[in-house]
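Data card: per-record layout.
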Amino acid sequence: MNVVLDIEVIPRELRRESRKVQEYVWEKVAKREEPLSLDDYLAAPELPERAELRERIERFMALKPEFGRIVCIGMGHDAKSVLEKKAFTAERDEDEARILGEFWEAVKGQQRDWRFVTFNGLAFDVPYILKRSLFAGVRPSTTLALRRFALDSHYDVMQVLSNWDRFDAVRLDVLADLFGLQKGPKGMDGSRVYPLWKEGRFKEIEAYCLNDVQITYEIFLKVQEYFR
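The structure for this 228-residue chain is written out next.
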């Protein structure tokens, strides 16, 4: 059985982080390029002229499990020959631990019978889940496959198609277009997850996440015939 996995993530709020974290993020993202200081930025990050900087900071934090959080975990399995999908979604900050617990319960005691199918899951989704579980104090129920080249336990479509060279990787939406698949919802990409989450539009985030699960699976079915 194949289990397809995808996650959606958002940044934590920089103003609510410790000073050490604030300084670390600022050093990584902005210090060498921005004329204003960290304190000036924190005093009014919402100013229109700081929108581009704010987006850079939010993207950096979202993509790092140390500074982001998971708001949706999408899964699908083909045990009955069709892909059955479900999503665990966080509607509040404190819901992350709950959805992580639901994920670990879903994979409890099953992984030896499964092959995970992901798109960049070896480098992103699975390590992110593990680290967020660590920081949230949610104990894993099983071991998640993280070994490269072990396609029988974790088939990372992006890694396979790029021959394990991330610099040669092609985005999922581009691959979907090449295969004539419909990636949706229309006009949606990862950069829209945080604004939608703040607006309480959780069903749209779920739809986006589960569409990625479906697209990843459909591409996997094509690719596995050639790359085993």
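Known properties of this structure: The two ends are 16 Å apart (CA to CA). The chain has a mean pLDDT of 93.

See the next section for split statistics.
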